[in-house]
Amino acid sequence: MTFVTFFALNNGLPQFQDAAVRQALYLGLDRDTINRDLFYNANVPTESFLPQENWAYNPNLPRHEYDPDRAARVLDDAGWRRGRDGVRVKNGVRLEFSTSTVAGNHLREQVQQFLQQTWQPLGVKMTIQNFPAAVMWGDFWRLSEFNTSIVGSIYPIASDPDVSDRLGSWAIPKRAGAGSNNIQYVNPEVDQLLRDSVGLVDREARKRNYWRIQEIVRTDLPFFTIHQTRMAEGTKANLIGYEANVNYRSNAWNINTWYWRA
């Protein structure tokens, strides 16, 4: 199964409800350096929450651009002014937040430290607050108590691109008591497209709708994609019948057809 690694925002927080902040942070995210120097280009850059192998994946989304000068201008134009300590403020809200992941995940911890350093010159103060897995993925994540997080997620269910449980406003567990929209993303057009698409039989019509959803989410930036994980597995040369399938958690999905070549 293919994971996409995200820098997830808690969109219920006031600083992230300003689209200019989300745009500036993404412009100030040096994703190429992260993927090259920390992950040794072992993964695939992506702009979508759907894996690139999915039939509804939209390949035409704008590619991420690292431009810290433009990021600073976006914040200036949106009225985020630097305070005495260098941290930007607007209407009494400081551009300050914490980020969390599982303590001991050294690669993600390095990503956190890199982002902390690269966003600081923009007037952004980010602190690091990591937890054991049992705490991180408990109510802290489920009830959207985090500010931001680095998380690997699988959005579709097998090959079906319906992501209602992830992006539907009715699936925010903090409000509804159930669902997986922990980032508290709300967009009425996305809601309508999700409702319209789930029961469509015409695959091309569904595909058009899911392409549009990906376009909206790429514009809204409720999270920042870092990469799609490239899953690597090894097999022996005389194992016949093994086939990788991105829609399964285990590539033993067709194990009944395997055999050893003598």
UniProtKB/TrEMBL annotation:
Biological process annotations from GO: peptide transport
MF term (GO), any: peptide transmembrane transporter activity
Statement: the UniProt record of this protein carries the keyword Cytoplasm: no
Subcellular localization: Periplasm
Main location as per UniProt: periplasm
Any one Pfam family match given in the protein's UniProt record, by short name: SBP_bac_5
Keywords, ordered alphabetically: Signal
Solute-binding protein family domain: residues covered: 4-153
InterPro entries for the chain: SBP_5, SBP_5_dom
UniProt keyword Signal, yes or no: yes
Family recorded in the similarity comment: Belongs to the bacterial solute-binding protein 5 family.
PANTHER family according to UniProt: D,D-DIPEPTIDE-BINDING PERIPLASMIC PROTEIN DDPA-RELATED, PERIPLASMIC BINDING COMPONENT OF ABC TRANSPORTER
Listed name of the protein: Solute-binding protein family 5 domain-containing protein
The species this protein was found in: Neoroseomonas eburnea
